[in-house]
Fold these 3 entries.
Entry 1:
Amino acid sequence: MVIVIFGHVGSGKSTIAKELGKRLDAEVLNSDVVRKQLAGIEPTQRASDDFEKGIYTKEFTERVYSYLVDEALRLATSGKTVIVDATFRSERHRRMLEEACFKASIPVRFFYIDVPEYIIKQRLEEREKRGDVSDANWDVYLRMRDAFDPPVGAVRIDGNREVQEIVDEIIELLEGG
């Protein structure tokens, strides 16, 4: 099975995906880590590239999502549960993964983490102070927000709660509850 945890930068995707991965004994693919691995830089090294420049160009983003799809399929076909943690701001990238899973007869579920903008701003400010694998800041959020395709067909999850509560809800939904 492939589980997609997606949403805006600062929504808590990575925290949720990491905890969900522990609970389900699943492999977690984090797009920020993959992007930096493909670029040959350390995960915590700041790329300092502006929105859609450097390792954030559309071409490089295509490489990242192609890798995520290929790796998710490779792991899932070997019998592992896979969690893909990425913004998936483009509906095309979501469909790319969905179609690949369908062709391989692998179930896939999309969970959109929905968080109020003021919470995202707080989280991004905190992230900048402590350092993080993600290079996204408030300015990047504002630009991405305007380019984010609506999460059609995904399960909307209220991300303005404790992580354990969110993970419990996702597990219950996965179990058919």
Entry 2:
Amino acid sequence: MLTCTWSALIILCSPIGKVLLMLLQPSAFWILPGIVFAFTFLMPTLIITGVRAALRKKNDTENQDHSVTITFTISILFMVVSYYLLKDIAIAIPLNLYLLSAISTCILTMMLKPFWNISYYTAAWGNLSGLLFYLCLSMPHIYLSPFLGIILISGAVGWNRLATLSHRHGEIYAGYALGFATTAVLFATLL
């Protein structure tokens, strides 16, 4: 869930973001990442923690199996709220496209989950990699290092999912490819 906040900071700290932020008050720099952090991480985490605690109290194993679906549904709802809060701010256009790609990836992954255990985690990192790839195409001297760093982190996340026997290799690669492709397609068509 923190990948949305990271994307906001990456976009706003870029040369494009700095130029656009000059149009705003200096204190406004933290407002956009603050909104994204609050609505895509903080509030969903608090609600998800409460829902999981309630499910544990019930000791209902059937509902605990659906906790991943509940988690991503809550995340999607809050990403939609963030999108609508930021949609009219011209500075946030790349961030809004990233939020749309994250929402699309979550929905696609949830639709495929009953048929194939695609990794949500690697799909999220694939989204962030897709964003950095697209930014790297326009300014490689600035975004190449973060892009390579995110790829390494994505590999570590994938390895962790394999080591915990949560997924198989194909599920890891499919999740990453789905996230990356969703972001790349949205950025290529809408920006």
Entry 3:
Amino acid sequence: MGADGILCLDHPIGGYVRLLGDDPKEEISPEERDRSFLTQSVKKKIAIVVAGPLFNLLLALFIFVGVFMTGVPSLTSEVGEVQPSSAAGQAGMQPGDRIVEIEGKQIKQWEEIRETLQMNGGKELQFVVEREGQRVNLKVTPMLKETQDVLGDSHQLWLIGILPKGTHTIKQYDPLTAAMMGAKRTWEMISLNVTGIFQAHSGEDLV
């Protein structure tokens, strides 16, 4: 080929870069032999192999940071459904309630509800909800439930039995917060991929 090979497709799905000399059977001209992959030192080979995945991770990080700074849709704390026998149902929470406080902490996003429940475990929590323009105080004790993630793994979480209404707001983050959230999201993607690979090799079903 005479140089590293680059595959370009007529549709934007995948692609690869082929290294010069990565195939021992490949015929390489004498003037290009010093540039071939197999003739490089061990350190250079490691650097070449690592460079590709590392660039992909950095690219993912920059994309996530840019997305968080530009603004991402975020579920509001408005309740869409309350399961009758759940902790929230027993406490008197109703569809249409908007959760504004938990244990004195201001709540605006659905994710904040989830995080607060896990941080406090199973202790009784003081909720403040907004209902028809009025604030209502509720005492809710989360229940420990077993759930499954996207890989089919079981996890125990503290839940109160509510679902979001589905209303969204666009939330923008400052550069520092966006960088931290981008790093966290990139790490989550790495962990998810590594877990999937190990499960595939161990023969576990991915649901």
